[in-house]
Amino acid sequence: MPPSPPPGSAPSMVERTRPIPTRITDPRSVEVVPLTAVPPTTPNPTPTEPVNIARTPYRAPHPTTPRPVTTSIPILRADATGIAAVRAYEDAPSTSTIAVPVIDIAAYTRSVLDLTMRLAEVIFASGAGAEDATAAMLALTRAYGLRGTEANITHTIITLTHEDQSTHESISRSRDVKYRTLNYAKLTATSELIADLIEEPTDVAEARKRLATIVSSKPQVTLLYRRIGWSLVGAGAAALIGGGPIVVIAAFIAAFVIDLLTTALDNRRVPLFYQTVVGGAIGPLFAAFVPLVDPTATPSLVVVATIIMLLAGVTTFGAVHDTLSGFYLTGTARLIEALLITGGLVAGVAGSSLVLARFGLDLRITADVTPTLGILAIQLVAAVVIVVGFALGTQVPWRALWVVCLLGAVAEVIYLGATNAGFGLVWSSGAAAMGAGLLAAVGARIVRTPPLVIIVCALVPLVPGLALFRGLLQMSDGDINGLLNLLTAGAIAVALAASAILAQLIVQYVWGPGRRLQRRFVGPLMAVPVRLSRKSAAPGPRI
């Protein structure tokens, strides 16, 4: 029997408590589930008497409170298989028993964000719009199992943030895209890699190796051929606006020298404005020698041809695309950049003309040069030459060269037909861009190239370089008519981009479900793959 209490003391009850077990935790949670002590049901129980504790079925609230684990714990690789297992564990019912994958989710998240931002940086720096880069980032992170990801692009800053839905902890990454160059070969290869990773995510390390191979691969054509391509753009522009053989040759040589000097200045990190000032000053120097060879030639056409060559690489299309897609800050910054480049060209042309006048070479560069229609065959050949030169300069994939040449000729035919019918420059440009945009969807499927590459190359002969140059030159002379020319040039640029974007939007909604990657955007996707199929089980071909 238990010993009796000492005399004079109040009788007390000897309590027996159940020992508190060790805490039940989960690798993803630190919450403790304790069991409180329960007093005995009878006073002074014997050691052999059981303790009756009311038991209730265990049900853990999803997903914070851990569930019991009854199976072995596998160790998964930090790839899509591992993160899929983690998400499956989180989505499983609370009554199920499933193995907890042991994986460093934070390290995995950082590696996926880094890979995604590198891919977005490559396509954005190679000529893709902000909407395409943002859609690619969201699609890639979702393919690798990361939910709650936000992506944003502000002109040159790419930001990607992921918030863990269970812990509400955020991991953010940002990259600064300082230099952008049109490289459609790299854009096409990276777009194909993004499509493969979205459809079948591979290990992050393997994907980074494939991206490094694309970035470090040698250019499709050498620097000399790229320089010849830009020279062909200048020569074709001179022929397109009615220049003779001497003017075409002078424009070719001037464009070659301009690209040589601007490339050297760019390698020395000279600001873009001063590069364009130097480029604009080269045109009048070569134009001054044209009357010495052919007095009947118009030297101003050489200057205008070089200006069109320099404006061909301006991101006017991308600026309008970003603005129409809702990226107003990025689009406005690109428009300001285009105006800054054009202002540098005008400053270079005006300064070079004053220097030549001091030496007695009166070079009258007027802003009233009217393009001549000429023979239709000459116009088409000139447009094709411009497209071929631009394709060489921007390294368009060889398999897409014949498509861009064909669509460039088609766009020029539509433009000349509309202008002769009296529709005006703006509506004629819009009609040509609409026709080229609709046909670009077919060509993109045939040659497996993003539609952006085909559309931009086909519309280069229609770039409003002449009207923009004329307007800024008149404004610098104090002529109020220059404002009208500036508005006309802006309207033409908007008509070209808006019509081409509308054509792609119609194709992606009529031909297929449209924007299969992400449906939260305003405009169509033009540089990343889009499935054109209405069946989710059997996806159709992508563009």
UniProtKB/TrEMBL annotation:
Superkingdom field: Bacteria
From the Swiss-Prot or TrEMBL record, what is one GO molecular function term?
transmembrane transporter activity
Q: What is its main location?
A: membrane
Q: Where in the cell is it found?
A: Cell membrane
Q: Which GO terms describe its cellular component?
A: plasma membrane
Q: Among its keywords, does the record have Glycosyltransferase?
A: no
- Show where the Threonine/serine exporter-like N-terminal domain sits: 114-351
Query: Could you tell me which residue ranges the Threonine/Serine exporter ThrE domain spans?
Result: 379-506
Q: Which Pfam families match?
A: ThrE, ThrE_2
Q: Where is the composition biased (Low complexity)?
A: 30-39
Keyword annotations for this protein, in alphabetical order, are: Cell membrane, Membrane, Transmembrane, Transmembrane helix
Record membrane topology: Multi-pass membrane protein
Region feature (Disordered): 1-70
Which spans are transmembrane here?
228-261, 273-293, 299-320, 340-361, 373-393, 400-418, 424-444, 451-469, 489-511
Q: Per its UniProt record, what InterPro entries does this chain match?
A: ThrE-like_N (IPR010619), ThrE_2 (IPR024528), ThrE_Dicarb/AminoAcid_Exp (IPR050539)
Which positions carry the signal peptide feature in this UniProt record? none
Q: Is the keyword Transit peptide in the record?
A: no
For biological process, the GO terms are:
succinate transport
Q: Which family does it belong to?
A: Belongs to the ThrE exporter (TC 2.A.79) family.
Q: What is this protein called?
A: Threonine/serine exporter family protein
Say which species the protein is native to: Cryobacterium arcticum
